[in-house]
Structure to design on (617 residues):
């Protein structure tokens, strides 16, 4: 019996140390989880979550009947796909190019400058983007010099998407390349030497040595990106969008936020739950896929 | 390069090696050199493109009103004028925002380091009961969250709406930070803690006098990471804070730059002798003022800024 108690007694001071953290965790992370019930209830602020009547799937039926929700869903998917195509690939390309640089100070200099945008909020970056793309800004000035009439980048549906993707790359490609660069340092230089001695061109060396060396890292980071598929960068979109581009720019998170400000709590909670739930499924699928592709080597669990 | 005879070994391998070197050198001179220069040029252009928007904003902020209105690349100011900065600094809202942001950055970072260390240290000890369970308990929160609405309702019910503590408390425990610290603590040789324990030191003393001092690099990195996040945070301020006296820099910046409302700044300059600014220069100055602390610290603390990326890639 004492054998059962002793480990507990020994751990007591340690457990005591954990108390504040665990309490905070339960309060701010676990407690809100039961808020997902709102999605299944006819939520009434005065009755609170527990006493509001159940409504089964009614909220979901209503939500999916709303055109603006469906637009938000569609936009989120479109933007995420674009981000995965261009935004995911950019740090990889940048890392490969940086890796080929032999001049150390050039490499360091480029890195310092390209990493910088990552450390600022989208309030800041969005503001800067608005300056650059404004009608008196340098981009439209360049167009003017080329004889092209000014483009309203932030109010045109198609340009807005381009702006989202490109500015997203501006912010994250530099910093994202760090992880890939770190993975590249673990590739043995002998591989490159013997390849070039065998007559492999630069391109072939990159294709056959560099890229396979990055494969594990790419897979892991891709899984993580899939888990976030329905997020599509709320910060960025919120600070750059405006009612004129809601048609293409409104994503799930901004939709939820607008429901909140309109006090449509049920719809907001339902949409939020939908997003979290799908996200969880996606990350499980992606992880299984990664495990399958690499014989259990690469996966989060 | 197998050796073919005893006496002639050296001669043969020398020739093959020279041939290889010559071949290699040839390859370097042609396609490789071209690639290297092209690559270098491309990367330099890229780096310039990354930094140019900041340059533009800065030059805009110190331009006089007339030169600010002229379209151009603004790589350097034609006429320098700090009127916009004067307008921004004179504004009491900006100072309030600055003070509140500073508060949440300093207090928030210190408390996060403290609370997460207090969670990470016990988790790093193999003799903690249900250690795996606790670890899972914490990590689970990284994968699944309640969502915006439940969190909003919770904050409301806790009475934290419009309370400065809402900047600190909800984000105190992050699974990520706890994981990083825990991994580091596990790397500290247990013999150090053991001998302290035998000498009668309590776990608290061991944590504060042994483990934390040893963890300075990790604490610096996690701390810096948290500080930047706190400095840049604005969503919680948007959702939970109503009074301007408690609002953060980012929110005022958002009103001015994204919301296109420079009136709040301009009205402070009514009656001032020099009013050489435009709404654009004011917006630009506000951006620079918000960005300045990070920009100034960045070159010096670059090492710590970047370490954060690696910490995330270490698999358990």
């Amino acid at each position: 019996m004492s054998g059962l108690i002793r480990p507990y007694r020994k751990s007591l001071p340690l457990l005591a140390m954990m108390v504040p953290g665990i309490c905070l965790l339960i309060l701010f992370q676990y407690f809100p989880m039961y808020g997902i019930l709102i999605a299944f209830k006819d939520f009434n602020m005065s009755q609170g979550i527990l006493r509001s009547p159940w409504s089964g799937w009614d909220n979901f039926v209503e939500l999916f009947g709303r055109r603006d929700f469906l637009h938000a869903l569609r936009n989120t998917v479109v933007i995420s796909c674009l981000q995965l195509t261009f935004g995911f690939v950019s740090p990889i390309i940048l890392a490969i190019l940086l890796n080929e640089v032999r001049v150390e100070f050039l490499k360091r200099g480029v890195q310092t400058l390209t990493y910088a945008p990552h450390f600022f909020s989208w309030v800041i970056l969005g503001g800067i983007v608005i300056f650059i793309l404004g009608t008196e800004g340098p981009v439209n000035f360049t167009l003017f010099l080329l004889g092209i009439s000014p483009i309203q980048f932030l109010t045109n549906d198609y340009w807005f998407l381009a702006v989202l993707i490109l500015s997203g790359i501006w912010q994250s490609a530099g910093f994202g390349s760090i992880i890939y660069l770190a993975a590249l340092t673990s590739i043995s230089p002998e591989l490159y030497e013997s390849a070039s001695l065998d007559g492999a061109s630069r391109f072939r060396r990159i294709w056959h040595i560099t890229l396979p060396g990055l494969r594990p890292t790419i897979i892991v980071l891709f899984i993580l990106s899939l888990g976030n598929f329905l997020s599509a960068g709320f910060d960025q979109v919120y600070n750059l969008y405006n009612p004129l581009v809601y048609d293409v720019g409104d994503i799930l998170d901004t939709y939820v936020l607008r429901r909140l400000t309109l006090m449509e709590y049920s719809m907001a909670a339902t949409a939020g739950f939908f997003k979290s739930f799908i996200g969880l499924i996606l990350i499980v699928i992606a992880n299984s896929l990664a495990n399958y592709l690499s014989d259990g080597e690469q996966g989060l669990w | 390069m197998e050796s073919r005879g005893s006496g002639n070994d050296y001669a043969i391998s020398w020739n093959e090696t020279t041939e290889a070197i010559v071949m290699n050198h040839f390859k370097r001179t042609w396609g490789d050199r071209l690639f290297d220069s092209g690559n270098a040029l491309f990367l330099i252009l890229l780096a310039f493109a990354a930094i140019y928007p900041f340059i533009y904003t800065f030059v805009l902020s110190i331009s006089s009103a007339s030169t600010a209105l002229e379209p151009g690349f603004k790589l350097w100011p034609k006429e320098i004028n700090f009127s916009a900065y004067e307008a921004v600094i004179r504004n009491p809202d900006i100072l309030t925002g600055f003070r509140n942001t500073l508060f949440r950055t300093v207090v928030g970072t210190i408390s996060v380091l403290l609370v997460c260390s207090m969670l990470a240290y016990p988790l790093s000890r193999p003799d903690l009961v249900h250690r795996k369970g606790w670890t899972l308990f914490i990590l689970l929160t990284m994968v699944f969250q309640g969502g915006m609405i439940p969190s909003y309702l919770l904050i409301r019910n806790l009475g934290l709406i419009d309370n400065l503590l809402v900047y600190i408390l909800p984000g105190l425990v992050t699974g990520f930070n706890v994981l990083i610290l825990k991994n580091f603590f596990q790397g500290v040789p247990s013999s150090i803690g053991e001998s302290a324990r035998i000498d009668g030191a309590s776990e608290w003393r061991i944590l504060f006098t042994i483990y934390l001092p040893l963890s300075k690099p990790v604490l610096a990195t996690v701390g810096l990471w948290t500080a930047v996040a706190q400095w840049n945070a604005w969503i919680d301020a948007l959702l939970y804070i109503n009074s301007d006296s408690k609002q953060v820099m980012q929110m005022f910046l958002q009103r001015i730059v994204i919301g296109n409302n420079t009136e709040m700044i301009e009205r402070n300059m009514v009656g001032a002798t020099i009013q050489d600014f435009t709404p654009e220069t004011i917006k630009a100055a506000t951006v620079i003022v918000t960005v300045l602390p990070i920009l100034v610290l960045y070159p010096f603390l670059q090492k710590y800024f970047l370490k954060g990326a690696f910490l995330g890639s270490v698999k358990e």
Observations:
- The CA atoms of residues 175 and 182 of chain B lie 10 Å apart.
- The two ends of chain B are 42 Å apart (CA to CA).
